[in-house]
Each structure stands twice: as C-alpha cells, then as structure tokens.
Amino acid sequence: MSTSTYTATLLLSPTPRKSPPAGGVEAPTVVDSTYITETIRDAFSAVCTKLYLNLLLDTWKPLSCTSLQTATAVEVTIIDPTPSGIQIRSLKGCYDLALFEYEYNVDVALQRDTVFRKHKRLVVFDMDSTLIEQEVIDELAAFVGVKDKVAAITESAMRGELDFTASLRSRAALLNGVPSTVFTTLKSNGTITFTPGAHSLCRALKKLGCKLAVLSGGFQPLAEYVKSSLGLDYAYANTLEVSADGQSLTGVVLGDIVNAERKAALLKEIAEKEGVDLRQVVAVGDGANDLVMMREAGFGVAFNAKPKVQEEAPSHINSRTLQDILYLFGFTAAEVEDLLN
C-alpha cells in the first residue's frame, strides 16, 4: 500500500469568522490568539489523528518569521497512509476541520508535497474583489444611479445564487446611458484601488519566472489597466457595446461572456500555449464563478471569498494582503523579502 505526502499550511486570519460551520449543537468559544500557538498546533494534530492521518510533529516550520512561537503562518507535513490520498480528501471537507478553523480563526491549505508546490509557472487571477478591491460593474452603475440595485445582484451572483451569464446581462442592461469615458474616469479619480499585496505578489511571481493572467467577468478596459499596472502577460474580460455616436454605453455585452466555464477554458488555453503542466498552474479568485477554474488548476485559492466559495474551493485564505499567498507555496518571509529586493 502506497502513502501520500501532503503539506498543510496554517495561516492566522486577521478577522474572526462570522458564523460556525453548520451541524454543531452550539457555537464553540472562539479562541483569540496573536500567533499560531502550540495549543492551536495540538488541536490541528488532534483533527488529523481523528482521521488516521500521520502528522509529522518534527516538521513544523515557521513561515512568517524565524520563530515557531511567534509565527502567524506555519506549515507541517502530513502522511496519508491510504492509497491515492483517500483520507486527506476526507480532511478537506470534514466538519472537524471546519470547526477547528472557526474556533481558532485559522485557515488551513492542503497540497500534495511534490516538486510542483514551489515551482509554479502560471498564475491566473480574477480581477474584481481579488486583484482590485471593487466590483467594477457596481461602480459603473453609480453613474446612472442604480448602484445599490446592481450591487445586490452582483452579491447574489458571487455567492453562486444566480447564473452568472444571465445576471451579467441583466446588470449590464442597467448601464445603458453611462458615459463611454467611464473607464478613464474610474482610473483617474481614485475609485479603482488595488488589493494590498497585489503588486508585491505579482512582482515576486514574475521574478520566479511565472506567467500571469487576469481572467475577469468584469470589463476589458479595466482588465487591460490591471494588466499594465501589475505587469501581467494576459488579460481577458467582457466587452460593453458603445453607442453609434461613441458617447455612451448601450448596456449590451458583446461576444462570449467570460463566465466560470470560459475562465477555465482560458486557463487551459494559456497553459497549453505556454507549455505549462496544469499541476504548475494556480488560480486565485473570490466568487462562485471562479470555482471551475480553481478546480482546473493544479492549485486553487479562494481569497477573502464568500462562505460558499471557501467551502467548495480547493483551498482558502483570509488575509489583508495577497502577498500571503506566497506562504502557500512554501516560501518563508525571508525568502519573500529576497524575491522583492
């Protein structure tokens, strides 16, 4: 019987989870901690033991600093004694792990411990609420006084409650009459802000030789702006029709919509073009329409995502900075600093 080796990365979340996982009799007391303490590590070890996974205690490694006692990000090796990692798949979706994450306010990311973990070659990102802090379509709607209405539809779509393609067309229709100069305005008036850590993460990944792409259910003019600002290699998004006189948007989306399936197809298309094994591809997003590409990639990361997305994504991280994603690849803070200097 063969065994499988995995790495578990534990990151302390900066903000407490809002609700405990479904299925508990009552909500447990949330432990307030500044670091991933020995108590937290022991609690995680107990979860692994319950599922007959062998957690190698001598492999605990601090990532965010040099001391295990004051680290907010750590990793440890897990051995799954079952063929093809049967037990580790149970851990990924089990109530005990969800309860651990809630009680100790820790995110746990699991990956096969192979050469591909550190050696990523293609990273694709969602744009809205991932690389940038806004949902662009909501900001466009503000120009015709329907931001609240559009934002409510956006929120439902990102939670996976609505079909993305249909919801995009219905929201775009409300943009009829928005000035065609709106994208230039959004870029120049400070409305569009990059997520903290976006620039440093992309800079580090480029230094590692990664190709980078933004695959967005938003709109091409801002995707091109993000591509240029972050030094990305590819940008794919939707196109809004402009009126015949060039003065305003018509509310019509042209061509194929970049929905969940299209994002996954583009991910594979770029990987094939660049000659990249899918095991070396990472997909990062926050909405339900990012789940398909996350599963297609060798490693998918839900960043500050909706609860449903966190539950279904291959991994999740709640952080104030995108740069923390580098911990998931096994890099220490000192190594990240070297990459950025």
From TrEMBL:
Cellular component GO terms held in the UniProt record: cytoplasm
Name the catalytic site residues: D126, D128
Which pathway does the protein contribute to? Amino-acid biosynthesis; L-serine biosynthesis; L-serine from 3-phospho-D-glycerate: step 3/3
Q: Which cofactor does it need?
A: Mg(2+)
One Pfam annotation reads Hydrolase
Question: Where in the sequence does UniProt note compositional bias of the Low complexity kind?
Answer: 1-15
The yes or no answer to whether the keyword Magnesium is present is: yes
Concerning PANTHER family, the annotation shows:
PHOSPHOSERINE PHOSPHATASE
Name under which the protein is recorded = phosphoserine phosphatase
The organism that produces this protein has a lineage beginning with: Eukaryota, Fungi, Dikarya, Ascomycota, Pezizomycotina
